[in-house]
Please model this.
Amino acid sequence: MTVRQGRLVVVSGPSGVGKSTLCRRLVERLGAFLSVSCTTRKPGNAETDGKEYWFIGRVDFEKRIAENGFIEYADVFGNYYGTPRKPVEEAMAAGRTVILEIDVQGGLQVKKQYPQAILIFILPPKAEDLLVRMEGRRRGEDEQSKKRRLETARQEINVARREYGHLVVNDVLERAVEDVAKIIQKSQETI
Ligand code: ADP
Ligand code: 5GP
Model:
């Protein structure tokens, strides 16, 4: 019996918009596989290695780049972030829906390699909401880091409006989860 290749779903959006919260809900709801990225940034207060990210050093990260170990990678806020290739390819081969929670630079690399990928960008109801939600994550970022993340958010939203197939506003969480789940399920029916 041949198993149909699972779909690849990219979820991007500004820091603090609610991507992690949304993706966790999608995993529960769709039984999807959520990719755990590698990053060279330091873990935040409540983060655990292997859960939110694999926290690795720059030398290790660059070795994995050289070995073609990432589907995509990017420099985000001065640190490397990348999607490990093997677990994603294995989950897709097993027919599972795979979710990548990555930035727009990464999303565009995925789109080139996998033209069938579903690209979804999550928007905040209002720009000011991002700051409030960033504080809610209690990651202890300084003011400069938050400012930089807001500036990047503005640029990413402009690119996503052109390049992403779907934009979803995360106002009421339940509704946003519903919208994203429908987008994924609908695109599965059409292939
Ligand atoms: P991201 O992964 O995009 O950085 P998180 O999922 O960590 O964002 O969410 C940031 C904060 O916003 C968290 O405290 C989360 O509980 C909260 N949040 C997520 N979605 C909503 C929503 N629809 N309304 C209000 N707060 C939300
Ligand atoms: P944070 O440090 O807030 O967890 O993430 C910063 C940004 O990096 C977010 O936009 C997040 O989506 C993005 N990111 C996380 N993992 C990856 C990855 O593997 N690849 C890319 N390109 N971006 C990622």
